[in-house]
Description:
GO cellular component, one term: membrane
Transmembrane segments: 21-42, 48-66, 73-97, 103-121, 133-156
Pfam family, one: Bax1-I
Distance between the termini: 32 Å
Number of strands: 0
Oligomer: single chain
Largest sheet: none
Subcellular location: Membrane
Family: Belongs to the BI1 family.
Mean pLDDT: 89
Helix content: over 70%
Amino acid sequence: MGSIALIIALHVYAREVPLNYVLLAAFTAVQALTMGCVVTLFEAKVVLEAAVITGIVVASLFAYILQNKHDFSVGYGCMGSLLMVLLWAGIFQIFFMSPAMNFVINVFGAGLFCVLLVIDLGQIMYKFSPEDYICACVALYLDVLNLFIRILQIVAEANK
């Protein structure tokens, strides 16, 4: 709940210079605490493998954006719908608890967050103004974090 409130505050006060840094630091601290709790549920080898894979994927997508000057922002509407599908699939997964469905949701989520990362990187490089650095930072952070969580779950399932 604190993360959501901080994200809203970050968007409202994105250009208020001293306050936006404080809010970004608070958001980062809350996310670090949350991720610290999440990764303790997995073996160190799995976390390291997921981190390396995430780093490679992010670097590859960044290289792709540097080479292609296409406008990927047209995908935002579709991404909203696909995020809702992911949300509802996660809610159904709570009740049905199928390992196969969990794997499908994680693969779909990883692909979705890769596409979102490409869209957000394109926006940052070609559309955002320099004053939008806080929103850009939060968007990238959330894309990479969500991608890492999905890859972490996929790697953990593959290592069982």
